[in-house]
């Protein structure tokens, strides 16, 4: 997964500091929204020739990693009641 995450850049000067694909100025959020809207990976690649399949996988890996970190941080926090779904 670390290899995939190497495609991600967070720079306050680019797209207001949102995580982006290096060299593309396309945010992780953009890619996730396109996937959620029903675009296939191939449609995204066709519409955005700068992107490669590994960039899409990197966006998904970043989101999964962020979700895991968020859950771990919430579990340690006493400010929130975290319910486990069984």
Pick out its properties.
86 residues, mainly alpha, Arc Repressor Mutant, subunit A, 3-stranded antiparallel β-sheet, 3 strands
Q: What this model shows, in words?
A:
With 86 residues, the chain is mainly alpha-helical. It has a single domain, classed as Winged helix-like DNA-binding domain superfamily/Winged helix DNA-binding domain (Arc Repressor Mutant, subunit A), CATH 1.10.10. 51% of the residues lie in helices and 7% in strands. It is built from four helices and three strands. Strands 1-2-3 form a three-stranded antiparallel beta sheet. Helix 2 crosses helix 4. The longest helix has 24 residues. The protein is globular. About 6% of the residues have low confidence.
| Sheet/helix structural class | mainly alpha
Order of helices and strands: HEEEHHH
What's the CATH C level? Mainly Alpha
User: What is the number of beta strands?
Assistant: 3
CATH topology call: Arc Repressor Mutant, subunit A
- Contiguous helical run count: 4
CATH architecture: Orthogonal Bundle
The largest sheet has its strands arranged as 1-2-3
Task: Round the mean pLDDT to the nearest integer and report it.
Answer: 84
Largest beta-sheet details: 3 strands, antiparallel
State the separation between the terminal residues, measured CA to CA: 28 Å
Low-confidence stretches: 79-83
Helical content stands at 40-55%
Using only CA atoms, what is the Rg?
15 Å
Shape: globular
Strand content: 5-15%
Structural domain count: 1
């Amino acid at each position: 997964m670390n290899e995939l995450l190497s495609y991600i850049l967070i720079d306050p000067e680019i797209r207001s500091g949102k995580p982006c694909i290096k060299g593309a100025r396309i945010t992780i959020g953009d890619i996730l929204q396109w996937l959620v809207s029903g675009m296939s990976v191939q449609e995204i690649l066709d519409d955005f020739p700068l992107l490669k399949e590994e960039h899409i996988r990197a966006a998904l890996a970043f989101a999964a990693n962020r979700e895991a970190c968020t859950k771990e941080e919430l579990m340690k926090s006493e400010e929130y009641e975290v319910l486990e779904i069984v």
